[in-house]
Structures are given as C-alpha cells and as structure tokens.
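Bit of a strange request maybe. I'm writing a small parser for structure token strings and I need a real example to test against, not something I typed by hand. Could someone generate the tokens for this chain?
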Amino acid sequence: MEPVKARNVIIGKGRPKICVPIVAVTAGEIFEEARLLAERSIDIAEWRADWYENWGDIPKVLETAGELRRILGDIPLLFTFRTAREGGEKALAEEVYIALNKAVAESGAADLLDVELFTGDGPVTDVIDCAHRNQVKVIVSSHDFRKTPSKDEILARLLKMQELGADIPKIAVMPQLKRDVLTLLEATLEMSEKYAKGPIITMSMAGMGVISRMAGETFGSAVTYGAAGKRSAPGQVDTEKLAGVLEVIHESVENG
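Reply from user aminoacidic:
Good idea to test on real output. This should exercise your parser:
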C-alpha cells in the first residue's frame, strides 16, 4: 500500500490521522474555528463549505479558502462541499459542484478535495484529473445516513472509487444493529488487506459505531473524523479524547 502525503502528514502510515471539520456560516466564524484548530491535536482540517453563507460565490469561496490556508499553516486543508443527498447542507446542480471543486483545486489553497462517488463516473474523473494536475489529492466518498449496506456493497463502492482514480476511497454508513458495525469493520479489513492500493477511510456513524472511529489502525482505516466544537456527523468524538485513545492503540500495536 502506498501512503498519501499532504504537506507533512503521511496518511496510511502509523496511527490514523485526525481530521476535524470546520462548520461555520460566516467567514469570520470560519477563521475563528481555524485559529482554534491550529492549537489542537489534529492532523487535517476539513472546511465544510456547504455551511458557508457565500457558497454560491466562487471568488468568495476561493478568497476564504486562501485565508484558511494562511491561518492553518502546515495543517493540510481538505475542501468538502457535502451535498444534501449525502447529508450536507445544500443541494446544487452537478455542473456547479464540479466547477466549484475544480476552481478550488486550481487555486492552490486546498491540499485535498472530497468528491462524492454518486456524482457520476465522468464528473468524478474530471475533478480527479484537474486536482492531480494541480498536485491536489482526492478523497472519493460515499455516505449512507439511513443504513449499513452489505459487506459486498461496501467493498464494491470502495473498489469503484479506487478504479476512478481516488487517492483515498471513503465510506461512512449508519448502523441499525451492532452487527452492522461488524459488517463495516469486516469490509474495511478485507479491502485494506486484499485490494487497497493506498489508504482508505471507513466509519460507522452515531454512538453505536464510535468504536470504528477509534479502531482504524487495527482494521485498516487511515483517517478518523473528530470534533473540536460543532459536529458535522453523528458519533464524532472530541479530538483530545480521540487522540489519547488512538495513541494507546498505536503503542499497543507497535509493541505487539
């Protein structure tokens, strides 16, 4: 498996990296959250631009992303516009979604982009090609806030993301039963051991699935999403608590 490097962070090596979302409405609030994150135990900052009041104004999005880049310093910036169909705040036309992501990739402000799998094969590969031309890594993602698909379906989506050229495939699912969490972990292990060419990200959401956010190093998920304030998804754990648990697991794995 080939790790993915974003600034000085190597994803897919060592303990899972902690990614924390910035979910704020105004530019001032976004910058304040970024300043707080710069003082916390995090590896990656995710800007959830679907929360931003000026999300439809690409020049303002780029201006805000550029200032975020300055505030965060060496912390990699992941740009995400989560659409309503995948649990986000806004619905927007496909062509606008693609144009926004390509503009951010070309701006140099983001180190990583999150692009949703179900946008379609052509549009996804279009964004990936643009991002790679600009030395930006791409997470291709899928989210199911209602249920946990079968193990075979989870694997199929992760493999499809990899086939399309994702640097990091990602899937997040909602458990209805405790066994659903095992389904997600089993799929993660099989993908990481048998098929993955690089790091993957998986998680089972809500309180029932919180163990999946902590056990990535055991089962093969390379990034976990925590919270340093407002949560962007159910089940996210405070970053300081999360860092402590990840370190305990990492030390145990390293020491056999």
